[in-house]
Design brief:
The structure is a homodimer.
Chain A: E1 4-9, H1 15-26, E2 29-31, H2 33-43, H3 47-54, H4 70-98, E3 101-104, H5 108-111, E4 118-123, H6 126-136, H7 144-166, E5 178-181, H8 187-195
Parallel strand pairs in A: 1-3, 1-4, 2-3, 4-5
Chain lengths: 198, 198
């Protein structure tokens, strides 16, 4: 069976950098935004719309102004949500079947649970996450308070999405094999030794 | 400042083995039960009594049959509890001052927070912990159900004790730098690479 590493991550914790470096270190495939693109191609929905769907738990993006009866709107929207999740699951299964890989987000730890993936969760203190977000979005004019609000909102959505599809608590140790706090840590330095345990 | 590694651990997860191997790998001191012994020596209380105090949050071991008025019993007992915790904190500070070290349990992550220790939490699935406990207590005649009850009781006490003295949630990722699930893992194999990140 292929070596599969899934990465859950708090927004701004460097989970994506961690995942990419880990994949490079191990010389295996890395999937993140590619999955959204593949879902869009499979479903004929736009990438932006798919992104919206996969970043919130269903009812949170209920399209109240769709101009149809509530029942119809609800049922139409929920069909799309179900289609996107089913497509996402299928794509993730195909990627895991194809080769060893690192997959970021997308409930991959749950979708691939029968393959016993190495489940990693990357997190950091809010202060460190704010600093990373500002460093990665140079030129932004939002305040620190607004940045904290934005980070908290993204994480709330991730937690609700994860809980909705898996029935488990996002960021709870029992759902992972390794949880890594990147506060004050140079990710490039810790990845090579950590890669040896997989 | 010395390199300090603190280890919180679920009962039966192999946290002690992990800590000892990590200390050996790094060639630094290791403290676990030695702390109880040192507290007993400092306070003139028996090791067993100290152990009872440091494994439960104060009110849980309230000595109702002490044969004094409730008020007096309460105040006498609470003074002992406070003395034990103060002595424990002082001993842990002294150990951290003396040399690089690994300290298991005892809220050391909180007591030494100003020294910025590397805070590790070791845990495992209940099934793995039950198997480890049976393997380590050969000849025991308790049932699996009883073993689960015993493990859960110890962990409940640890969680309450930690929460009482630190105001934080035991086993919550935000209080640690690294959380390691030892389910299905050979601890001897993962310690050498992990030691390189400290």
């Amino acid at each position: 069976m292929n070596k599969i590493i899934t990465i859950g991550r708090q927004f701004g914790s460097g989970g994506r950098e961690f995942g990419r470096r880990l994949a490079d270190e191990l010389g295996i495939a890395y999937y993140d935004k590619e999955i959204i693109k593949a879902i869009a191609e499979h479903t004929a929905l736009s990438e932006d719309y798919v992104k919206q769907i996969v970043e919130k738990k269903p009812h949170a993006v209920y399209p109240v102004n769709i101009g149809q009866s509530f029942f119809f709107a609800d049922s139409y929207y929920m069909r799309q949500v179900q289609e996107v999740y089913a497509t996402q699951s299928q794509i993730i299964e195909e990627l895991a079947e194809k080769s060893d890989c690192v997959i970021v987000g997308r409930c991959a730890d749950h979708i691939l649970r029968n393959r016993k993936p190495h489940r990693i969760f990357v997190y950091a203190d809010m202060e460190a996450r704010v600093a990373r977000c500002f460093a990665e979005s140079s030129g932004t004019d939002i305040s620190e308070k607004q940045m904290i609000k934005q980070i908290s909102r993204v994480d709330k959505n991730r937690a609700e999405y994860y809980s909705y599809y898996t029935g488990k608590k996002w960021g709870d140790i029992s759902n992972y094999d390794l949880c890594i706090n990147t506060t004050g840590v140079e990710i490039a330095k810790i990845v090579p030794p950590l890669a040896k345990i997989f």
